[in-house]
Amino acid sequence: MINPTFAVAHENALFIGLDNYVTPHRVNQAWLDQQLAANPRPHVFAFGHEPAFAVRHSDCLDDYPAARDAFLASLTDAGCYDGDLDGDGDVDLSDLSLLLAHFGTSCS
């Protein structure tokens, strides 16, 4: 299985896509910390599929609250803010599509 976790820098922003399934309901925190520490850009956008809290899903990052809290703290410390642009309870590719559309581009 290919790990779809990635980071892409574009102009003044870093985009981070997180796979929550290589280790179920967790992110690769060590890798994320490295990416955030090495990033000089003022804008960071991180997204994944699973919600951080169990609202409409019982299987999510909420299964491991200490790991989830460390993940959220690392994003907050890096200047990230909630990116649920479409209001569906998670931050994923549909949110990235809305963001890119705002700047006149697309995910394709």
Q: Stretches where pLDDT falls below 50 for ≥5 residues?
A: none
Mean pLDDT: 82
Record field, number of beta strands: 3
Major β-sheet profile: 3 strands, mixed
Could you give the order of the helices and strands? EEHEHH
Terminal-residue CA separation: 23 Å
Write the layout of secondary structure elements.
Blueprint: E1 6-10, E2 13-18, H1 29-38, E3 43-48, H2 65-77, H3 93-102
Parallel strand pairs: 2-3
Antiparallel strand pairs: 1-2
Helix pairs in contact: 1-2
Descriptive keywords:
3-stranded mixed sheet, 3 helices, 108 residues, globular, alpha+beta
Compact overview of the structure:
This protein is an alpha+beta fold and 108 residues long. It has helices at 29-38, 65-77, 93-102; strands spanning 6-10, 13-18, 43-48. A three-stranded mixed sheet has the order 1-2-3, with helices on both faces.
Describe the structure.
With 108 residues, the protein is α+β, with helices and mostly antiparallel strands. It has one domain (6-102). It has helices at residues 29-38, 65-77, 93-102, and strands at residues 6-10, 13-18, 43-48. It has a three-stranded mixed beta sheet, with helices on both faces. Helix 1 (29-38) packs parallel to helix 2. It is globular, with a radius of gyration of 13 Å. The model has no long low-confidence stretch (mean pLDDT 82).
